[in-house]
Amino acid sequence: MNRLFFSTVNLVILFFACVSYAGDSDLANPYVANYPFKSAVIHYTIKDEYGHGGKISKGTEIVYIKGDKLAKVTKMAVPDPKGKDKIKNIETLQIFAPDYVYMVDLVGKTGIKIDNSKKYTKPAYDSLSVEEKKAFHKRMEKRGIVSLDLLGLGKKVGTDTILGRQCDVYQSGEELSPEKLSEALEVEGGEAPSYMKSWIWRTAKIPLKIITEGLGWSNELIATKIEENVKIPDSRFTVPSDIKVTYDKEKSEFAKQEALVRFELYKTGKPMVVKMKLKREEIKPKGNSKASESNQKGQENQK
User: Fold this and answer.
1) How do beta strands 194-201 and 206-214 pair?
2) Measuring CA to CA, how many Å separate 23 from each of 8, 17, 28, 59, 199?
3) Looking at the domain 3-249, which fold is it?
4) What is the pLDDT of residue 75?
5) What is the arithmetic mean of pLDDT over 196-203?
6) Could you tell me which residues come within 8 angstroms of residue 116 by beta carbon, excluding any fewer than 6 positions away?
7) DSSP string, the chain
8) Residue 166: pLDDT above 70?
9) Alpha-carbon separation of residue 212 from 8, 47, 174, 223, 260 (angstroms)
10) pLDDT at 294
11) pLDDT average, residue stretch 83-88
């Protein structure tokens, strides 16, 4: 699968795919979508810049939301590493359904399917007592979490309006000035600084603008158009018939265990340790490798 599935910007968008946090006043299930519309189509532009030569990748993303389903189509034109001044076109599809998540390479005609971890956490929350639900929401609020799929936003630094929608603005890290970048380059072995600023549509808990910066790279994702309560065919949330989809058992278990760990943290306030088991990789003399892996237990994230 292409690395663009898991780029910084895409991960953040991935976080809002199936969940909106409704607040603790009504103890609503935070694993259930609570959008202010029945359906929506959101158009984005993407710009990635990286490397010493200032290589730039540009593209678009369209997010389709209908009830409890979400699909995202991303198209990028990226520098082709095989040739100077050549461009490689990439097109991916992600579908978030109640039971499964699909990640598809529309160019390579391949994809993977994993369990949607929320099919485990949603009923787990419903089984809590009223007092446990109150404590759950209180712990989320204490940690500044506005949505379980929008983690790592940082602190709220203001408000803004994008495309007529009121947004809360969050910031993680400090904006990287030329002086700070220069200082970071001089520190050998130090942690590379990073910065993220997010504009979150308040009532929908959806990012409408995200700017991320690091040492030698930057990403921008900006919403350019929002259509609410429009007709979206069910086919938008179906993997094309010519795509070969493989179920990934290990990634499914990975996502499930991390989601349950986080659930337990907000339920009890105590972190739960999860061990991960991996089978060793056998490397053949001629350079061919054969990996055989068993069940993994770990953590997800991403949104």
Assistant:
1) antiparallel
2) 27, 18, 7, 34, 18
3) outer membrane lipoprotein receptor (LolB), chain A (2.50.20)
4) 96
5) 95
6) 18, 96, 97, 98, 99, 100, 101
7) --GGGG-HHHHHHHHTSS-----TTTT--TTS---SSSEEEEEEEEEEEETTTTEEEEEEEEEEEETTEEEEEEEEEEE-TTSTT-EEEEEEEEEE-SSEEEEEETTTTEEEEEE-THHHHHHHHHTS-HHHHHHHHHHHHHTT-S-TTSTT--EEEEEEEETTEEEEEEEES----HHHHHHHHHSTTPPPPEEEEEEEETTTTEEEEEEEEETTEEEEEEEEEEEES----GGGGS--TT-EEEE-HHHHHHHHHHHHHHHHHHHHS---------PPPEEPTTS-EE-------------
8) yes
9) 8, 11, 11, 15, 29
10) 34
11) 78
Measured in residues, the chain has a length of 303
Where are the chain's structural domains? 3-249
Residue 42 pLDDT exceeds 70 = yes
